Amino acid sequence: MAWTWLIFFFSSLVVSATASHCSIQGLPLVRNISEIPQDNYGRQGLSHITVAGSVLHGMKEVEVWLQTFSPGSHTPIHRHSCEEVFVVLKGSGNLYLASSSHLKYPGTPQEYSIFANSTFHIPVNDAHQVWNTNEHEDLQMLVIISRPPVKVTPTSTSTHTITAANGVRLGIIRKPTSPNLPVFREAPAYRNADSCNVTHKIHITMTLDANYIRGTMPVVLSILQHSTCPENMEFHFLWSRYELDVFSSIKSTFPYLSFNVYLFDSNRVRGKISKSIRQALDQPLNYARIYLADIIPADVKRVIYLDSDLVLVDDIEKLWEVDLEDKVLAAPEYCNANFTKYFTGMFWADKKLAKTFNGRKPCYFNTGVMVVDVEKWREGGYRDKGVNHRWNQHGLGGDNIEGKCRSLHPEPISLIHWSGKGKPWLRLDSRKPCTVDHLWAPYDLYLSSIHSLEE
Ligand SMILES: *[C@@H]1O[C@H](CO)[C@@H](O)[C@H](O)[C@H]1NC(C)=O
Ligand SMILES: *[C@@H]1O[C@H](CO)[C@@H](O)[C@H](O)[C@H]1NC(C)=O
Ligand SMILES: *[C@@H]1O[C@H](CO)[C@@H](O)[C@H](O)[C@H]1NC(C)=O
Ligand SMILES: *[C@@H]1O[C@H](CO)[C@@H](O)[C@H](O)[C@H]1NC(C)=O
């Protein structure tokens, strides 16, 4: 979603052209900070003092703020086209910084601890957020900003307009089509069981975007809940655009989760996607899984790729341990499908394409659940192996056109997959759930569609 939010600082004061150059706009040279007015601009937990500002005081080169955040409060995720230096005077917390310049994986927000007497600077235009994570103490910082007045672009989803008493009007202009990000409950911390006797990491890859985040959360929760070694899980999320609020949502729902986010360049698949029978399948991010071997770090040798419309009901370690023999990937394979319905009339009308299946017994594998030897994949030579169908009780979303209700197959189950058009959260929200959707519901951490970020 290209949500564009802009905060503008408007001035109702006219900056006097004749201001003395000894003091700014006739202000005393020395002032008592305790006597400078403070405001919270409608943000709970914030106390903001403009020590020296462009709008209030006519500063042209720098602007200085003193900000205090009460426990648990935070800035919105935002960026601006000026340099910014923070000096932490009191308290402690976290800085999230998504650098577009110098990190190994551009776009991945990094977490930094900040503490009293620490200082940090934000490179121009890097998205960032500061949280007071200390439950007992205020976080107080001096903020120095170059080139005022600053134009702030939040990546968050809140909207408000405030007219502050000091004459600074703070307005946010929002594209009317921006959907709100859902709010999720915080998941419990899952710890390794005493019986966990493996030390290796289990790498799980999924795609991540605001549209499907409702489905992403239950996948993560169900993996952690049924795993003997939840602390060994490492998630690698692929996203096609930079959505720091989505990142923030994962972070606040699973505060203990070990994960990274990687940017997938949609240009890699542009022009290569043929029209399918379901529009949702045409999204570039759907094809990111083909490139995951190049995207995730080179020291990861094996990954499990999972769709966002499923839940695990068994220990994922068992799937991880699948014997790939000398193959590159293992996926559930199906050989009894009626392919007529899988392709559009246009496909069958094309003689060359239509004869693809002549004289063959066609099978397909579901790419929504794959165990991939990424090292072999990088080397080339792609051969696949079937995994037991218990790892993909699929098709519960119904067919690709109507999304009708389907029921479970009478076989053992380790993973339930709502592949197809119907998604359990949509059917539950519209109060027309299928019976199988009640199996998904316990993993839904969804609270409401009111956005989680600052109001
Ligand atoms: C600064 O202002 C505060 C609050 O009004 C006051 O208590 C304090 O005495 C002042 N300090 C000085 C040095 O004037
Ligand atoms: C901050 O640093 C100064 C100078 O080194 C020191 O005097 C002061 O005690 C420090 N404060 C904290 C909270 O560490
Ligand atoms: C780990 O535990 C499982 C059962 O929890 C057991 O079957 C397996 O043999 C154990 N492996 C090692 C190396 O101890
Ligand atoms: C496959 O599906 C098509 C269209 O629904 C139907 O006409 C055809 O008979 C089916 N073929 C088999 C082998 O079931």
From TrEMBL:
Keywords: Auxin signaling pathway, Glycosyltransferase, Metal-binding, Receptor, Signal, Signal-anchor, Transferase, Transmembrane, Zinc. It is a single-pass type II membrane protein. Its main location: endoplasmic reticulum. The keyword Metal-binding applies. It is found in: Endoplasmic reticulum lumen; Membrane. One of its GO terms (cellular component) is membrane. Glycans are attached at residue 117. Zn(2+) binds at residues 78, 80, 84, 128. Belongs to the glycosyltransferase 8 family. This is Hexosyltransferase. It comes from Tripterygium wilfordii. The lineage of its organism: Eukaryota, Viridiplantae, Streptophyta, Embryophyta, Tracheophyta.
